[in-house]
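An instance noted here:
***
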Amino acid sequence: MLSSLIAAYGVKKIPIQKFAPVILSAANSSNPAARTEAMNCYKSLYLWLKEATDTFTDTLKQQQKDQLKKDYEELKGKPNEKKRLTRSEKEK
């Protein structure tokens, strides 16, 4: 859900620091679906934060970091644009 929210509204409206421990625990989970969704969150964050995302991924396993670096290379040319606007943004 978090990666969908980030893709729809960007990172300015979502307190990422509050969710960082949750994403990290999902990334270290034994459940493969949880790990996949955590990686998707990191990829969504990368579209908005670029290299600043590294602060969230410092404690990941090296294999996960390597995979994210490969995924980041594919995302470098992709623009980050909001898909939806909040009510206050619509009014403006």
In short: The helical segments are 2-9, 16-27, 32-49, 54-57, 62-75, 87-91. Residues 25 and 49 are 21 Å apart (CA to CA).
